Amino acid sequence: MSMKNITAAPLLFFMAANLGAAAADTPKKDYPIQPVPFTQVTVSDAFWLPRIETNRTVTIPFIMKKNEETGRVDNFAIAGGLMQGKYKGERYNDTDVYKVIEGAAYSLQVHPDPELDKYLDGLIVKIAAAQEPDGYLFTARTADPAHPQPGIGPERWVEENVSHELYNAGHLYEAAVAHFQATGKRTLLDVAIKNADLVARVYGQDKRHGFPGHQEIELALVKLYRVTGNEKYLDLAKYFLDQRGHDVKLTQYPPGNRFAIYNDAEQIQAHKPVFEQAEAVGHAVRAAYMFTGMADVAALTGDVKYLETIERLWENVVGKKMYLTGGIGARHDRERFGADYELPNLTAYAETCASIGNAFWNHRMFLLTGDAKYLDVMERVIYNGVISGVSLDGNAFFYANPLESDGKYRFNQGQLGRAPYFGTACCPGNISRFLPSFPGYVYAVKKDTLYVNLFVGSSARIDLEGNAVGVKQETRYPWDGAVKISIEPARESEFAVFVRMPGWAQNKPVPGDLYRQAQSGDQKIELRVNGQRLDMNRDKGFARIRRTWKKGDAIEIVFPMDPRRVVADEAVKDTAGKVAIERGPLVYCAEGPDNGGRVLNLELSDETALIPEWRPDLWKGVVVVKGKALAVTKSADGSVASRKEQDFLAIPYYAWSHRGPGEMAVWMKRS
After folding, report:
1. Around Cβ 336, how many Cβ atoms within 10 Å?
2. How many folded domains does the chain comprise?
3. What is the pLDDT of residues 132-167, one digit of tens each?
4. Whether residue 540 is found in the same domain as residue 588
5. Pairing of strands 668-670, 611-615
6. What is the rounded CA–CA span in Å between residue 634 and residue 220?
7. Are residue 606 and residue 480 in the same domain, yes or no?
């Protein structure tokens, strides 16, 4: 297919739909619900806009600088013969450059920046120089073919279960599509297509058999298919999924070799064919990316077996393996899921990348099914497990996101608290590409139905079967439960607006029984249209409002925002006898600076009143939760020596570790 006539168009972070392509090239099948592209949503929200702006002005430039300082950019120049030197870092470091290009490209789409555009052009020159004539692009080998980096094997593809050759390629494709959509330039897209064509020549039923050790290319091939219309990329994504569990060849490493831990089919989700998998196992990020890729292939092929499989796996994760914050991955050992109900707090892994993958997956599940329960999980992980991964000033990061800290255990790649960068720096780059695309999760459409998924101060102009409908949200969510949604159709007409009714506002923290409210409440959601109270017509977790809409119409919702106590299933041993606090979509935690330096000795009584309070002096404004707690001291023999009542204060989980290392707890003893 000729690419000459394709024009740049808005990019959906997870889809990259080529809205400017000819109709003949558009997918024959697709998600029944389509998200409104982030480029069509203008965010004015007091909670989200500062984060998106900090990402643009601080995080993206900071990561670019770190990539320069650590040799990640030089690796491309060395591989391309533009400079002399030796490869630095890990075999997957190319992706740190690709991911920040992707994030920068999303930012450019809504905030033109000639200086940033020029910088990306320079990076792309180095990337293109590093590409070998047949399309191969992997600086860890090309920089010194005679002495390739450990873990990538003496030849191409032979150690793909650990080499990350295909993983790197996937992030290249995502960056290339984003850059093309943002600028209309083909410079990086041509590099990606050349590489993808090589991979398609190498892998297939009658070619080399295999699959990625680290999933990611599956999602990226779908994006490349969408922007080019070339079905071989979709076919290859499907092949890689279907090949898992077949012809599995694991390299045998000698004892003590650092790659020996990957000599395990479960670790890379290749222990069974994908359609036979019923439990989430192995590396949590790889699994989340795989489940997301399966959703894409389900949508684009219509194969219901993929949907049936990921629904089964979703039930396992949400019902038995997800943290209250939405994080996934219990074990630092190989960054993997644990057994059912294995959810330690101090040693929780809950990697930021895994949280982002969980958000991707749940959003796609909603687009396939229209069920708000997936958005409930997506909201939970975004407001807690994702944004906790970056500091409020945008230049310090969490890799792991534990639910407890004793101020001693070095959970964050050897750090006690937030770190400025990492040797394995996948998480900062992932944050940089997630935040500018966040507005694309707020709204969605299906024929003449508008979905309001998240409550974010914003405005958009959305096409509903030829009627341009303006929508505007005004809210202080998540601090306040009042939301006003103004509807402005170009012409008076009948259509439906579906407004999500969060599970947390209906005494149900998560779908299923893994977590529940400790005390039943009688809080009610208030819903009005043009000031008139409306009986709720529920549809898969949404309030369905179908009427003839005209300019000036408005929906008003008030969600109950009293703090709530939450307990976990008794099978979760690490939370037995403990309670957590939530308010709105936010999980709260107790941190040392607010509670006399210690929190792991606190007991929280069911009878203690929990009082929300706006604190403008903390991080430019947050709602804290105050009350009374018992501070327990113990004797040398471990018996309780005393219980003393003291003031208690909890902060949003995402804000912890901004005041130095120390004790923190999401789960507190319940007295």
Report:
1. 24
2. 3
3. 999 999 999 999 999 999 999 999 999 999 999 999
4. no
5. unpaired
6. 55
7. no
Cα 603 to Cα 582: distance, rounded to the nearest angstrom: 17
* Same-domain check for residues 535 and 588: no
Residue type, 266: E
Tokens coding 214: 């680290």
CA–CA gap between residue 58 and residue 55 (Å, rounded): 6
User: Residue 65's closest CA among 556, 312, 432, 439?
Assistant: 432
pLDDT at 377 over 50: yes
Partner residues linked to 449 by β-bridges = 446, 496
- Shortest CA distance to 194 belongs to which of 179, 217, 176? 176
Residue holding tokens 């109900």? 341
Q: What angle do the packed helices 165-183 and 187-202 form, to 10 degrees?
A: 150
Q: Are residues 184 and 67 in the same domain?
A: yes
Q: What is the tens place of the pLDDT at every residue in 261-314? A: 888 999 999 999 999 999 999 999 999 999 999 999 999 999 999 999 999 999
| Position 653 in a domain | yes
- Phi and psi dihedrals of 497, rounded to 5? -115, 120
Q: Are residues 644 and 545 in the same domain?
A: no
Asked if 87 and 76 count as a contact pair (C-beta separation under 8 A), the reply is: no
Residues paired with residue 633 on neighbouring β-strands, in sequence order: 642
Q: Is residue 4 part of a domain?
A: no
Contact 654, 388 (CB under 8 A): yes
Both 462 and 601 in one domain: the answer is no
Tell me if residue 149 falls in helix, strand or coil.
coil
> Which of 242 and 633 is assigned the larger pLDDT?
242
Q: Which domain holds residue 607?
A: 564-670
pTM of the model: 0.95
**Where on the phi/psi map is residue 302: left (φ > 0), alpha (ψ -120 to 50), or beta?**
left
In angstroms, the CA 55 to CA 327 distance is 21
Residue 462 backbone zone (phi > 0: left; psi -120 to 50: alpha; other: beta): beta
Instruction: Decide if 554 contacts 530 (C-beta within 8 A).
Output: yes
Taking residue 29's Cβ as centre, other Cβ atoms within 10 Å add up to 11
pLDDT band at 22 (very low <50, low <70, confident <90, very high): very low
| 104 and 219 belong to one structural domain | yes
Of 266, 300, 323, the last residue of a domain is 266
Domain boundary among 509, 535, 558: 558
What is the per-residue pLDDT across 425-441, written as a single tens digit (0 to 9) for each?
999 999 999 999 999 99
- Please give the C-alpha separations between residue 480 and each of 477, 584, 613, 623, 625, in angstroms, as whole numbers: 5, 8, 11, 9, 14
**155 burial type by CB count under 10 A (0-12 exposed, 13-18 middle, 19+ buried):** exposed
Tell me the angle at which helices 165-183 and 94-110 cross, rounded to the nearest 10 degrees: 20
Per residue in 197-213, pLDDT tens?
999 999 999 999 999 99
- Asked whether residue 433 is assigned to any structural domain, the reply reads no
Enter the DSSP assignment of 40: G
Strands (E), 436-524: 443-446, 449-452, 458-464, 467-475, 482-489, 493-500, 515-517
580 and 532 in a common domain? no
Is 245 among the domain residues? yes
